[in-house]
Amino acid sequence: MNFKEHLEFGFWLFIPIYLILVTIIGEVELKFEIIGFLFYLLGTVLPDFDKEDSTIRRAMYLLYLGSVSSISHSFFVKHLGFYSWPLSMGIAYISWKVLPKTKHRGIFHSIRFSFVYSLLSLPVSIILGGNLNSTLFLFLMAFFGYTIHLILDGSLKF
């Protein structure tokens, strides 16, 4: 399946998954519903990050370069002024190039990494003052979005 198919299939599966979760967990605040939906949708396409020409990899490249450059710049700007930008951009570019490459349908295509991805929702919930229900909701939305991708690919391994 390609990016669009994974995203659309996951998009339409959201409603039944949402209904099951709110039946079991209970309703959560609107902000957690929206963030859960975004974690879920990202999860439906994120496993293909390890594929060199994937849409999600290209999008993550943009976010990575922007984030690392901006964060680095905020640390160096007081000491380097204008020169902070070229240094920060160089750090972002070089660090992306030296990141380990994984084979397609390797570690990213596993339930283990689905769990790791879901853990990213925990600090978000804490920062937003989430209670147990909202934290569990975010975690499970991330997990189900990611796992749906694995099921659709037929690569449900641990």
Give an overview of the whole structure.
- With 158 residues, the protein is mainly alpha-helical.
- The chain folds into 2 domains: 1-52 and 105-158, no CATH class; 55-100.
- Helix content is 75%, strand content 0%.
- It contains 7 helices and no strands.
- The protein has helices spanning 3-25, 30-45, 55-80, 84-98, 111-119, 121-127, 132-153.
- Helix 1 packs antiparallel against helix 2, helix 2 (30-45) packs parallel to helix 7 (132-153) and helix 5 (111-119) packs antiparallel against helix 7 (132-153).
- The longest helix has 26 residues, at 55-80.
- The protein is globular, with a radius of gyration of 18 Å.
- The model has no long low-confidence stretch (mean pLDDT 87).
- Percentage beta strand: under 5%
Largest sheet: none
Structural class: mainly alpha
Secondary-structure element order, N to C: HHHHHHH
> What is the helix tally?
7
Task: Spell out the key features of this protein.
single chain; 158 residues; mainly alpha; 7 helices; 75% helix; 0% strand
Question: Could you give a short description of this structure?
Answer:
By secondary structure, this protein is mainly α. 75% of the residues lie in helices and 0% in strands.
Question: Helix and strand layout, with pairings?
Answer:
Blueprint: H1 3-25, H2 30-45, H3 55-80, H4 84-98, H5 111-119, H6 121-127, H7 132-153
